[in-house]
Fold these 4 entries.
Entry 1:
Amino acid sequence: MKAVVENYRENIKIKKKNSMLHSLKRDSLLYLLLLLPMAYILVFRYAPIYGVLMAFQDYNIFEGISGSEWVGLDVFKFIFQQNSFYRALTNTLVLNLLDLVAGFPAPIILAILLSEIRYVRFKKVTQTILYLPHFLSWIIIGGMVYLLFSSGGMANTVLSSIGIGKIEFLSQKTNWLIMYIAIGIWQSVGWGTIIYLASIIGINKELYEAADIDGCSRLRKIWHITLPGIKPTIIILLILQIGRMLSIGFDRPFVMGNSLVSEYSDVISTYVYRIGIGSGDFSQATAVGLFQSVVGLIFLVAANYIAKRIGEQGIW
């Protein structure tokens, strides 16, 4: 009996091995296509992890990581005593929270509206107009914003000509916040709309046909079919965005910020740039980046855990 069991196990191993070899041979071109992305991830994502050691050193660029003095957690202690760090941390959280509250629902609403449009040509033109800003560099967007909304820009010229007077869009703090969030939504809403449109297309059309037979209005179909159908996508994207609460891009605040609104525009990414590139303190810059990554991971895990606890689908 023992020999039979061992023989059976050996046959299973052989079958698995043959199946794996067959899969590799059958999908060899697909695996070949994966080589370049994998090389990119290894070189630009995993290799730089070695540089995290600088956060625990008094790093000297001439001596390198191997020759620099180890200082333990002293760099972190120093950072946590700096008021400028807490200002950047607070600004990052506030701007990301405003982006989440104001910007997260926008692509959902647009995707639902586009899915309800029956005139195909108008729908395609609208989609193209919405997607285009996503492919613009923030440098270009920053130039457009300055041209339109600076003190001597086109918007203020028009407002002055009709007797309203100038509005300081980019130098008054509250106005700058509104502009920052609005421009961010305009730039990113098209890409998010693509994701939700793809999710809506995947909903079973028979559900809508059954709703039509029952005499449901468009609003009821959206509420009872469309929104539940894209709910898993909404939850996953919400979890990912919560995980990025401390990760704010460098381009947007750097391009749109100025000295008059630095109280709001100085975020973690610009803070790291200033102390790392500007002051040459690579240990501090690395420590702040490591802190940002760890807290972001905690946010991600916590959001995923809460989603699963309330019965929703998580990302793992």
Note: The beta strands are 57-58, 69-70.
Entry 2:
Amino acid sequence: MQDFLNILLASGKKGFELAFFVLMPIMVFMMAIMRVLDKKGVLRLIAIFTAPVLLIFGIPGLGVFAILQILLVSFAAPVSTFRIMDQDIDISDRKIAAALAAILTMSQANATLPLTVFGLNLPVTMLTSLVGGLLASFLTYKIFARNLADSVERGAAEEIKKEDDKQKTIQIIMAGAEEGFQLVLKAVPLFVLAVFMVNVLKAAGAITLMEKIFGPVLSLVGISGAAVLSIVTKYIAGGTAMMGATIPLIQDKAMTAVELNKIAGFTINPLDAVGVAVLVSSGKRVAAFVMPAIKGAIIGILFRGIIHLIIF
């Protein structure tokens, strides 16, 4: 019983650290910035200029912000953009699903940038993220979400609306920051539960058992059994936890930089319990259409993973 309580308390502490020291600063800052850009009409203008290219893959114009945010900030940063898309009635359900599929496929900066120090090939990871993400969004838009409501894009003159809002900039910033804070609070229980599951699996010896089972299979593509811990941790507790489990393995020489790059295509993305939970917290419409997005993302991630195995 004491061991169980120790695991529970340690998981709670780790979950709160991830939420308040990793996620909170990012979300408060990004929501504040995104709200200012939205109120000043900047997002609307960028959406218009990028729409012709992104619409080929089913991604609305605002999707470019979500793409930049996940590649350059973190897995949680696109929540601010999805929050705006969720509330914009001019962006269809089908396009939201396609944009979500792309984000679920791409690599998050909060994992890629630190792991670059330990041998992760950043240019290749970024390139496969973009290609895999666009493939996922295209398949989601054309196949998996084809039954969802869609809309016809309007011209630029109709799309740009003058903001009739007398709020001062500081008021907009405070409102956005508060919104980001509330989003993080909703995600805290999911963080704690995900970390708790990983710790329970470790204590029960399930991780060791999986290393023995999947080790021979991984060895066929030049990956050691030690990578099982990184893979399992990623899909249960998220990319940040996966990074935390992987760095000690590399430092102890249980995993090489080549092995890290081999598994990167499959593991460095927000398609996991924590990542999905955080992204769907951005709004009801995003949460409602997550399944078509996940289907598209799975194919995009498999494509990325195969490319990484071929290159490395």
Note: The chain has 16 helices and no strands.
Entry 3:
Amino acid sequence: PEKLDVVIFRENTEDVYAGIEWKAGSKEADKVITLLNSISTGTSHPLLSGQTGIGIKPISEEATKRIVRAAISYALQQGRRKVTIVHKGNIMKFTEGAFRDWAYEVAAEFPQVVIEGKQGAAEGSSTDRRGKPAQPLLVNDRIADAMFQQLLLRPDEYDVIVTSNLNGDYLSDACAAQVGGLGVAPGANINYERGLAVFEATHGTAPKYADLDKVNPGSFILSGVMMLEHLGWQEAAELIVHGLTRAIANKNVTYDLARQMDGATEVSCSGFGREIIRLMGSR
């Protein structure tokens, strides 16, 4: 798990999660089926049968370029080294494939970007959040299903990932499992154009654990770290990450992490928080 350090930018307004779907047998579904069956597909059989649920997968140039521009800007500001576009464009050429193509169009806007396999990117004059000159940023792409294997076998080769809605949902949960579970996976919904942002844990409310002082606060705490980074408070963010990292290294952790570690000391939710605070300034 120590080799995995990725930030996933997931477009969350489109794709199959857009909510444009109709129940099998509904008037709306029947209309869509009739339309699709009227389009020649090169076969002698209807494309769809009558009892078929229908869902639409919209992928737009506007939303794609917005999320990719945000991912690349973040990578440059935070001094990250690589942005990987994840897609299933080998099969869904006009949606996932378009996502990939539009993503590369955005990458070409940044002089600091080097496209994998291409040379000659100009040096940029921008700086990261620490005030250091932004280093050249590599942009490449991977097929979605192969990316799961890559993250398991070669996690240290990936850094910032930008992808569509469904792929991002799957990948974020898979990555969370690799580093201890949803208890340490932060999340945010950010509009980088307007500056609006909401930061939240990626797990649900888990009401069965209410008032037990038991669950891992790491997801909430790291979501706060993301908020501090978004505000430009890098030093504060790094102090919290340092404290949390040391607490886990010392094996003083909540139950969800303790059961995955040999020789761990299980502490409460509040106890874990106190341990993080105690270790924030330690070296």
Note: Residues 61-77 form the longest helix (17 residues).
Entry 4:
Amino acid sequence: MRIISGKYKSRSIKAPNSKFTRPTTDLVKESLFNILQNRIDLDGITVLDIYAGSGSLGLEALSRGADEVHFVEMNFSVYKVLLQNIKSLEAENSCRIYKKSALKFTLIKEHENYDLIFADPPFFEYDIHEVYKNIIDNGFLKDGGIFIIERSIQTEKKDIEAFGIQPYKKIGDSLIYWFEK
């Protein structure tokens, strides 16, 4: 995996060797950021990357101008790879990692507010429905902020029921759900 654009362009990042992650493909990541560049100025924003895994989405946002990225990852071996990726880019001062589940993180009452939130859970992880509700109900997203969830085409029916909207875009076997505040 690599950073596609920005100050870390072409730098490699490691993928966790874990059954608990499903890294976002470069195709999906590039498509997402092509859409984002026309919708939000990434310069100076604060980003949340939930179910962070390797940190690919958050680190791409950092490379393209985000000021700060917060990552949520609960698996210890995956957390270690994420930390290595941040260190390899010398980005420790711009990143914070929360080692806890996405569900527990989104129940925190006192928290930052984010301009951009990515959620890329394992495809058949259904706590994303509650995580989505918590993010909206607990005000994690700033006014004008964007919340993007990547899911499988195989979970589409349950996701549409839980999120209350149709997928924004289909990329390969991924569906992108897009929420704006």
Note: The chain has one domain: 26-180.
